[in-house]
Amino acid sequence: MKCRVLSALLLPALACAHNVQLHARQSTTADENSAALSNANTATATSVLPSTVTFPLISENPTAVPLSEINTGAAQTQSTIAISTTYAGGSKPTWIPDAPALPPSLPIPTNYPKLDVTPPTDSDEAKQWIQEVMNSGVYIPDIAPTNPGGCGNNTAVLANTSSSGTCWWTCGGCTRSTDVSVCPTKNSWGVSYDDGPSPYTPNLLQYFDQEDIRATFFAIGSRIISRPAILQDEYLTGNQIAVHTWSHPYMTTKTTEQVIVELAWTKKVIKDTLGVTPIYWRPPYGDIDDRVRAISQALNLIPILWTRISPTQTFDTNDWSIPEGSVNVYEVLDNWELIMGNSTKIDTGFIVLEHDLFEQTVDVATGYILPQALAHQPKYNMTPIIECLDMPLANAYLETNDNSSHPLPLATVTPVSSSSASGAGASSTGSSSSGDGKSGSSSSSASSSSQSSGSGSLMVVSPVLLSVAIGAAAAVATLFL
Ligand SMILES: [Zn+2]
């Protein structure tokens, strides 16, 4: 059984989290540990999957794992490789001028919370971070946490998820001007990989080195504790490191204090591992609303999603579904072909959802997706997302950011009345209730956003305009689709 086999190899709960019988959007415990689930735009478990490549491959890595050997829903037997370099404490990054040196030693796991669950909110660190958010001046909207289960289990609030309401991306694709979901320049691809570092990340980095590719890695705090040296290798070879939470939950289901600790602990372990603190993050599953946005702003974090041009056309390869078992590699390649086709139809560049957590997702990336991208005409400009936003890598981190041209999120906080905070700067690419069609069945247990506060005991200190511009990043992020 796949869960058992994968457990032995890698990440027990992660592998099982995507068991097809336990849809991750409908689970709770599994969500804590899950690898990735997005609003996939294609196959479901009941679809008839293609059995061959349905379009001509214009390029293929000669050392690629054969497509027939990239197994659906099962562990593979490919061996992993070691990272190219192990870095000593004090090593200086060469990609970012004046970046701090690596800390003298790697993080000690016992100094951090339990892996793959939301950290406690009553620790000394948590209390300090919660206080910092309270003192930030950022207005945290009074939006209740959503029910686990996505749109289908939150029917009472669906009418309020659009730009005039909570702007819940999961249900309708609403974005604010502070969200990054595209690259501004046509044919630029802000490459990214989520949910690592994993044992297979070095295979991806090896291909990056071979083809001179760099990307943004949205790293999970719990995975960094397990593999800090791989994160250092990602960082020191010129990739961008960004936050992807501590335990990979649906963030809108969490209380405000829980959202704070999910983000803050991940920022801390990255700082402790690399010496720099990311100022970009991606919500797992793209699950963000105005409350989660505000909390992330209070923690100096800018959200990055992925490109979405309609309710059924998101730039999601659905690669995570290969190990989960509901999609095969041919379907993922069909998704990628569709994404490349759509990339030629839009006026901007794009951001795609892929993962470095699983052997299959790395194999399909290095063997097929990236070679196809490298051979694409017109040529794609493939960079980390910060660079596709026309900024240097240095602007990805608190310690090296150019605050004059790229003000930090907290630097843009401007006190205004809370009543004017809603709806500003919003964009939606789909109906507010359409969701992704895979979000679980409807339920009568849904709650209303007016029933209770999602902020727990957190007090609003100084209301601000939620969607206030975030400097240069906001300027490019306003290029909505
Ligand atoms: Zn993820």
Provide an overview of this structure:
- This protein has 481 residues and is α/β, with parallel strands linked by helices.
- The chain has a domain of 282 residues: Glycoside hydrolase/deacetylase (TIM Barrel, Alpha-Beta Barrel).
- It has 14 helices and eleven strands.
- Strands 2, 3, 4, 9 and 10 form a five-stranded parallel beta sheet that branches. A two-stranded antiparallel sheet has the order 1-11. A two-stranded parallel sheet has the order 5-6.
- Strand 5, helix 9 and strand 6 form a beta-alpha-beta unit.
- The radius of gyration is 21 Å and the shape is globular.
- The chain starts with a helix and ends with a helix.
- Bound molecules: zinc ion.
- Zinc ion binds next to loops.
- Its cofactor is Co(2+).
- Its EC number is 3.5.1.41.
- It holds the Pfam family Polysacc_deac_1.
Overall mean pLDDT score?
Answer: 81
Order of helices and strands: HHHHEEHEHHEHEHEEEHHEHEHEH
CATH superfamily grouping of the domain at 109-139 and 175-418 and 471-477: Glycoside hydrolase/deacetylase
Number of strands: 11
Tell me the radius of gyration: 21 Å
Low-confidence stretches: 1-46, 418-426, 428-481
Oligomer: single chain
CATH domain topology of the domain at 109-139 and 175-418 and 471-477:
TIM Barrel
The CA-CA distance between the termini, in Å, is 42 Å
Please identify the structural class as seen in this structure: alpha/beta
Q: What is the percent of helical residues? A: 25-40%
Q: Any ligands, ions or cofactors bound here, and which?
A: zinc ion
In the CATH hierarchy, what is the class of the domain at 109-139 and 175-418 and 471-477? Alpha Beta
